[in-house]
Automatic annotation (TrEMBL):
Its EC number is 2.5.1.47. It catalyses: O-acetyl-L-serine + hydrogen sulfide = L-cysteine + acetate. This is Cysteine synthase. Its cofactor is pyridoxal 5'-phosphate.
Length: 304
């Protein structure tokens, strides 16, 4: 007979996400022995790669005695981290307050409130910078405890402990390139750092938007707002992607590979496919941070 603890909790289903091979978009690369693999983080229970650091940050804050059930937790977020934190907060008994620009997608806002979070919306013109300073002010006023994904070492630590190890295991140690879009930079920093420890041969590539391009989930930060968790020694290079290329590649992932994802995945895929166009016998892994159903109310998948 199975006991109660033989069944997982929702938290215990975080991670162990699939790694799938691109077929049609990477057909030419396959002729040169190169494989392009997508790490599908949208299969996490709250729907994104941010489930990993959300659980890590809350569990670490509990272990350090900074928070306990019943407390209020505050976080500035552009969306996915907020959803993930709202899910973990619901499980562990915290009041969750999420501060973000008011132009987030309808799906994201409704998902956060479905988990019980309260939203504080800031002027979109101020971007994430305004959301972050607002969260700082709320914490200073005693309205709650801020986890601060941009400076919290528990963010990249989650990817060192799990994401990188999964990629290494799933590729049998054959991964040659790791590509990740750069938002809070936790995924790139943590996964890249650990992969470089596992092999000197792995090349780490960050992705950020070209000047003037707006790609949800990817940022090129002003120096004063650069996340403190970012380690510039981790990526071997950082490549820029423009909004049109990211959009086209996101649509192509859905229509030619059956991968419905957000635009940050399209940006990373565009860079990964660019690498694949010149590499032989390479194993290129890129992160698909979330699912595309979070963007159906936007024009991301609009048809001509």
């Amino acid at each position: 007979m199975r006991g109660m603890r033989d069944y997982p909790t929702i938290e215990e289903t975080i991670g162990r996400t699939p790694l799938v091979r691109l077929q049609r978009l990477a057909a030419d690369a396959a002729e040169r022995g190169t494989v392009v693999l997508a790490k599908l983080e949208g299969t996490n229970p709250a729907g994104s790669v941010k489930d990993r650091p959300a659980l890590s940050m809350i569990a670490t804050a509990e272990a350090e005695g900074r928070i306990r059930p019943g407390d209020t937790v505050i976080e500035a977020t552009s969306g996915n981290t907020g959803i993930a934190l709202a899910m973990v907060a619901a499980v562990r008994g915290y009041a969750m307050v999420l501060v973000m620009p008011a132009d987030l997608s309808v799906e994201r806002a409704r998902t956060m409130t479905a988990y019980g979070a309260r939203l504080v919306l800031t002027d979109p013109a101020g971007g994430m910078e305004l959301a972050r300073t607002t969260a700082d002010a709320m914490e200073a006023a005693g309205e709650g405890v801020q986890l601060d994904q941009f400076a919290n070492p528990a963010n990249p630590a989650a990817h060192m402990a799990a994401t990188a190890e999964e990629i290494w295991s799933q590729t049998g140690g054959r991964v040659t390139h790791f590509v990740s879009s750069m938002g809070t930079t936790g995924t790139l920093t943590g996964t890249g750092r650990r992969l470089r420890e596992l092999s000197d041969a792995v090349r780490i590539v960050g992705v950020q938007p070209e000047e003037g391009s707006r790609i949800p989930g990817i940022r090129a930060w002003e120096p004063e707002f650069l996340p403190r968790i970012f380690d510039p020694t981790v990526p071997h290079e950082v490549r820029n992607v423009n909004q049109d290329d990211a959009t086209r590649t996101t649509r192509a992932l859905a229509r030619e590979e059956g991968i419905l994802a957000g635009m940050s995945a399209g940006g990373a895929a565009h860079v990964a496919l660019g690498l694949a166009a010149t590499e032989r016998d390479a194993t290129i892994v890129f992160i698909v941070p979330d699912r595309g159903d979070r963007y159906l109310s936007t024009d991301l998948f609009a048809t001509d």
